[in-house]
Amino acid sequence: MIVLGLHGGVTIGQHEPGAALAVNGKIVAACEEERYLRIKQARGMLPHYSINACLREANVAWEDIDLIVTPGSTYNDFEPRVRAYLTHLYGSCPRIERMHHQLAHLSAAYYGSGFDRSLVLSLDATGDGACGMLAKATRDGGIEILETIPTDRSLGYFYTLMTYFLGFEDGDEYKVMGLAPYGQPDIDLSSVLKVANGDFDFDWSLIRSEPKLMSPFEPTYTDRLRSLVGRAPRRPGAPVEQFHKDLARSTQAAFEEAFLCVVQRLKAMAPDFDNLCYAGGVALNCSANRTLAYSGEIENFYVSPASSDRGLAIGCAYYGAVQCGDNAWPLATPYLGSSYSNDVIRAELDGNGVPYTEVDDPARTGAELIADGKILGWFQGRSEIGARALGHRSILARCDAAEMRDKVNARIKYREEFRPFAPSAVQEDADRYFVTGDAPYPYMCVTVDAREEHAEDMAAIVHVDGTARLQTVRSSDDQLYYELIRHTGVQTGTPVVLNTSFNLKGQPIVETPRDALMTFFGCGLDNLILGNFVVGKST
Fold it and tell me: Please, what is the angle between helix 479-492 and helix 362-371, to 10°?
């Protein structure tokens, strides 16, 4: 069966739209609308370009689709709206089924993991009237929902509440996470989020109700939060003081305590299950994921590479395939977006009059440039799913000097100085440099501790608390990127590179060769390698 999973559109609150295609239970394509529209999060948009890209990559015709599945089970008018839209675009529309937003997250996590038996958890701000689901799953029995958490107990909303209070904007929760290690957890937030007796309680009355929230861009907090915290909220753009660092750390600490409480409660519901699959926007909190990974609570821990709403289409496609009787294949790779051949890249370069050099071994050339201290744009193969660049649409640099971190920030990313960059390391060497226990961490979903004896060798990617958001790379995952890291290690002595997403602040990750060229010439990158072509800048 051919199942198309869709997410997006209808309301401005729906963000990160995309499409995913399952053929006989295997996800063969997954694309995100923001990459094609060039609008971050693409709020309210239906995934027209993503659908076309999935069909193109899978060589599937629209008429071959057997079923479309979307989230939105609580939106009664969702199906006719989507049907009208698709019929307008394609002249016809297959059967459409709706499923619960949180169940779509569960499906993306469980079916993507490859585990036979697992606990499954979804946590986000809200979706279809809930902020999370606790479940267990087996290959024979499917996903059994054990508990649904209503929106007024949302850990996602708690973190967003504090994000706005700290003067950041919609979608900036990762900034709070990056700021937290600079502070102390000495601000009492128990009146906001309290953990007791194996459960947590979030004071929903702190979420603004008058005037009612109608847009994700509105600040969420009430004036009463000011009195509980003891300070006025930070204005966006105002200096970050030690109090704000302490509040960020206290927010992270309170969140982690509540998160572990949820995991422990889920374990108590199904004590004979040792694995955990996890998705939802809250799963992007890689510091909390570190706490769980190191806690010993879970034997095997899988976080979906597209754990936020970017992964809903994947969950819908998986769920629809299973409902149609297909066996779900594990998500073997995150590289499920569009690809661009060397012929297409050459035509783009020639069409724009861009000088280039063609090389036989882009991995070795890239490693030589990185070892020489160059900041490199790296564009290869199919684009990766999710919020993290995983070596196909990446900016790469040496990791052995703090000055490189500052240089990438000042010349390219234009980010707050407290936000860390991430490393990529070859799998077989990762435990020499990071505390991994030889476990794979392929998706940058978990921070790990850097080995103290090697921290100075990786000064550009080790955060102030001694952690790093690691991506481990196996040759079977991505041979070309693996070889680049390995060659870099031969030349620098450290088989680790700084890897950050190939985009400028406020923009989506680049999708096409043209996007890559525009970004390259619009910032301080030294070189760009697209496929087998190397581009530099004249001096």
Answer: 40
Residue pair 51/93 in contact by the 8 Å Cβ criterion: no
DSSP assignment string, 207-256: B-TTTTP-STTS--B-THHHHHHTSPPPPTTS---HHHHHHHHHHHHHHH
CA distance 174 to 476: 30
- pLDDT digit string, tens, across residues 69-96: 999 999 989 899 999 999 999 999 999 9
Grouping H, G, I as helix, E, B as strand and the rest as coil, residue 270 is coil
Lowest average pLDDT, out of 8-17, 168-177, 457-466, goes to: 8-17
The upper half-sphere exposure of residue 432, i.e. CA atoms within 13 Å in the direction of its Cβ, equals: 12
SS3 category, 390: coil
Q: Which amino acid is located at 38 in the chain? A: R
> Phi and psi at residue 382, in whole multiples of 5°?
-80, 140
**Distances from the Cα of 114 to the Cαs of 26, 34, 330, 371, 388, in angstroms?**
12, 28, 5, 37, 21
The structure's pTM equals 0.97
Instruction: Summarize the chain as % helix, strand, coil (round to 5).
Output: 40, 20, 40
